[in-house]
Amino acid sequence: MSLKAFHLIFITAAITLAFGCGIWGLWDFWSPDGRGWDLLFGLGSIAAGVGLIIYERYFLKKLKNESYL
Amino acid sequence: MDIPYTVEARPDTGLYNAKVGIWLFLASEVMLFGALFSAYILLRVGAPAGYWPEGWLNVPLGTLNTMVLITSSITTVMAWASLKMHQFGRFKLFHAITLLMALTFLSIKSYEYHDKFTHFEILLKDGRFADGHIIERAPDHIVIHGRIVNDEKALYNLHEKHIQLKEVTIQRSQIKSMERYGPWHNTYCALYFTLTGLHALHVIGGAIVIGFLWGPGSKLWETDPERFTNRVEVSGLFWHFVDLVWIFLFPVLYLL
């Protein structure tokens, strides 16, 4: 597996983590003890996840000629 | 004599030798970290209800470190892509940023470790517990920034959002025992320091290799650019593995 393929796996894992953190943060914010930090953390994580998806598409386009092996 | 298959793929594996080597090494690393993760999960599941620490770590700092490592992975792969496009100057720039990110990660981790090593749990002679960071030491008393609780169980869950910390003066004659939040403090601390310490050692190792390829090792680019590009790819694979471990460590230790 090449660095290109491993990078795609890593970025996909990071996207999953970002959306997971986003849901976790928003869940905490809407709980009875919710704080502003939870909202910031949740929205920031979702924004990071969206940013990583955009980056992943850019990366695939930039290295389209590189092998996955 | 030339070493074979440093650049072209070996017919039976379809890969150059260093790539086979790094993947074999990473397979052993998966087993090492997998065993430690399993130990963490089993010990956590087996802990008595209410006695597993929650909220002991600084989530904003952990989040920052996660962002730092994700950025470093992007710059690592960009450094490799730059070499593929014969842009050596851009390689130097991206790898310098990777090194900077590695040092930032280690600095933040050191700060977190320092915070734990200056944090004390103090058992008082009346059976209560004082908990916090020492801000003043005198011959007859100490002052901590923390709190006093009646039950040790109250110290385990810091997700409680109404915990008030303040300056508390404790006479030394009141103290039965006191202990830092080091690896010896409890099972959670032992696992936290083992997992993150081993990970930090990997970050240091990776940073040394990347630093070598950025500095003296980059001379190979002038004589054998394809082999140098392969070396950068192999170091990048290791770096991605180290970052992927953190992607799992962060939610497990900081959030759950």
Structural write-up:
- The complex is a heterodimer of chains A (about 70) and B (about 260).
- With about 70 residues, chain A is mostly helical.
- Chain A has one domain (about 5-60).
- Helices cover about 80% and strands about 0% of the residues of chain A.
- Chain A is built from 2 helices and no strands.
- Chain A has helices at about 5-30, 35-60.
- The longest helix of chain A has 27 residues, at about 5-30.
- Chain A is elongated, with a radius of gyration of 16 Å.
- With about 260 residues, chain B is of the alpha+beta class.
- Chain B has 2 domains: about 35-45 and about 55-115 and about 185-255, Four Helix Bundle (Hemerythrin (Met), subunit A), CATH 1.20.120.80; about 120-180, SH3 type barrels (Roll), CATH 2.30.30.
- Chain B is elongated, with a radius of gyration of 24 Å.
- The interface of A and B includes residues 3, 4, 10, 59 and 62 of A.
